[in-house]
Each structure stands twice: as C-alpha cells, then as structure tokens.
Design goal:
With 326 residues, the chain is of the alpha/beta class. Helices cover 43% and strands 17% of the residues. The longest helix has 22 residues. The structure holds uridine-5'-diphosphate.
Length: 326
C-alpha cells in the first residue's frame, strides 16, 4: 500500500512511518519541520531496506500542488500535521489555529476529491475541563472562555472533528477520527512542554523536576508504538469509518507521583520544584485536572489494549535520552 503521512517527521508520525516501512509498504511523508525533525526519520531514511520506498517531502501541507500529487498517488492518508503541545499553542496561537483548522480542511478536501480514506488525529484536549473518569466519546465537552488561549486548541481540534464528520455525511468520504491521549516514547521532545521527556531529562541532569501547580493533576500515558498499532488497525477496519475513538492508557497517575517515580527509576538526585501555573504559563492558566480515557469502543472495534506499562515506558525513554546525551 501507499501511505501518506502528514506530519511524518513528528514524534508519532515518524513511528507510524517506520511501522509501515517495516511492514513492507511505500511511505510518503510531508512535514514542514515546525515541531517535527529530520533526526526522527534519519535512521530509516538511511536504511537500505527502505531506500526505494520512503519519500520525504520537507514542505507545508498548504503547498497545494504537492499535496494534490501526494494525495493522488496514495491509497490512504494519515493526517497528523498539527500544532501540538500546550506551550507551543500558547506561544503561537494564530499559527496553531490556522494549521489545525485550515490545514485539516485542505487535507479533507483533497481526500474527498480523490476518494482516499483518511484518519484524522484529534486530541483528548477536546474533552476540556471534566473531572470525571473515564472520558467517553459521547461525553459533553466543557471549555473555558475564549480569553484563555489554551482552549483554542480544543476548539480547533473539535472543529476538525466536525469538518471530517461533515465530509463523511455529505460526501461519503471515509474518515476515522482518533482522540489521542498523552502519548509518550523515544523521539518525543520536551521543547513544547510534554511532561515525560522534560522530567526524564531533568532527572538525568540531576536538575529539579518542574512540577506545575500542586502536582495533583492526573494523566495516563500510552507508549507510542501501542498508539501506532491502534492507528494501523483502525485504518484497516471498515467499522471504524465515520466514528470517533479515544486512544490512550488506563494507568492513572498524578504528576507529583510521576515525578517521584522518574527520580527513583533513574537513580537521580533531583529535587522537586513546585511552580505556580501563573509562572509556568500565564495568569489564570487553566490546566486539565484529570484526563483518563474510556477505551471500550476501540477495544470492541479493533481489540486495542495498551501493552506497555508506565515503568517500561520510563525505562525506554530514559535509555533513549541517555543515548543522545539528553
Ligand atoms: N507538567 C508539569 N511540568 C512540566 C511539564 C508539564 O508539571 O515540566 C504538567 C502539565 O501542567 C500537565 C501535565 O504535566 O498537567 C501533562 O502535561 P503535557 O504538556 O505533557 O500534556 P497535556 O496533558 O497538558 O497535554
């Protein structure tokens, strides 16, 4: 199969590209390297086995002619190109809205033109400020006011979902929508705020771990290769078309407990540094206090269950960080 991955040099995109290459498929990626990096794909770009079936386009998805060509020749499309990370969104609010809304609209329009099945990466952010767990796909969504930039990410991803579903309903375009919860693993950078690469790097350097707020907020973390398996199975399943799926882990942990675990696992001498949200982000910043996915729907549809536990994930991330000198 010919697979097109937008955002293919990003953290999740590069693992997805690698999995399809290892399966024997032909892979096309397009990435503007805004948050992605050629380092993420270097190893398999140089791999003899993949040389004649891995095609890298360093460009924006707003390059119409290139996207027209790439969509035309592909069998299926994974749309992962997006502005990611709370810090990145807060620092680049306009660019983030543009890429997330207009970029997705562009991809859907081309997929509809060529009748190509497309999987859209949405986010657990769309749930907003819920305190209950687990969050399920049919839950109501609760946001803060538009004066708080953070919610523009949720709103833009939600608009992507509406647009994709509208293409499905009005044009019969085969779309699959995935709400990705905190996904972690090698190649993820802490530069855009993500907590595990940041804490692991800080721990390996014996620097204080920067806990935002009081650390009682919770998350679950899913290993990127488990997420990739889920994405590939959904793409192959006709029952997934026109549906929205959570993809995430089930082991809920507070950020404070996570920090302590990372210090223990890495044998670090780091201290814990509790930083008020207003210092870490902006005045009146609102975090999501709790975020745990219900995964019954994806389990029932494609049999997905996360296989890699948090201890293993932390070990793999620490190994990766050590090998590249943090
Ligand atoms: N966080 C933290 N210290 C950091 C980075 C993140 O305490 O150096 C917290 C952040 O406030 C959030 C959680 O860790 O409550 C997960 O953050 P991340 O940016 O990884 O993902 P999010 O769930 O916010 O999308």
């Amino acid at each position: 199969m010919r697979i097109l991955i937008t955002g293919g040099a990003g953290f999740i995109g590069s693992h997805l590209a690698q999995a399809y290459l290892e399966r024997g498929d032909e892979v096309y990626i397009i990435d503007d390297l805004s948050t992605g990096s050629l380092d993420n794909i270097k190893a398999f770009q140089e791999d003899e086995r993949f040389r004649d079936r891995f095609f890298v386009n360093t460009d924006t998805i707003f390059n119409h002619d290139l996207m027209l060509e790439l969509t035309g020749i592909s069998d299926v499309v994974f749309h992962l190109a997006a502005a990611v990370g709370v810090r990145y969104i807060l620092e680049n609010p306009l660019e983030s809205i543009k890429i997330n809304i207009q970029g997705t609209e562009k991809v859907l329009e081309l997929c509809a033109k060529f009748k190509k099945k497309v999987l859209i990466a949405s986010s657990s952010e769309v749930y907003g400020k819920h305190l209950h767990a687990p969050l399920i796909e049919t839950d109501n969504l609760i946001y803060g006011p538009s004066s708080k930039s953070r919610w523009s990410y949720a709103a833009s991803k939600l608009m992507d979902e509406f647009t994709a579903l509208a293409y499905y309903r009005t044009k019969g375009l085969k779309v699959i929508i995935t709400r990705l919860f905190n996904t972690v693993g090698p190649r993820q950078t802490g530069a855009y705020g993500m907590v595990i690469p940041r804490f692991v790097t800080q721990a390996l350097k014996n620097e204080p771990l920067t806990i935002y707020g009081d650390g009682t907020q919770t998350r679950t973390f899913t290993y990127v290769r488990d997420v990739v398996k889920a994405l590939m199975s959904l793409m192959e399943n006709e029952d997934a078309v026109g549906e929205v799926f959570n993809i995430g882990g089930t082991e809920e942990i507070s950020i404070l407990e996570l920090a302590k675990k990372i210090i223990e696992k890495t044998g670090s001498a780091s201290a814990l540094d509790l930083i008020p949200y207003s210092e870490a982000f902006e005045k009146d910043f609102e975090d999501m206090q709790r975020r745990v996915p219900g995964i019954e729907k994806i389990k029932k549809t494609v049999g997905f269950e996360p296989e890699t536990d948090l201890d293993t994930i932390l070990k793999l991330v620490a190994e990766y960080m050590r090998n590249r000198n943090f």
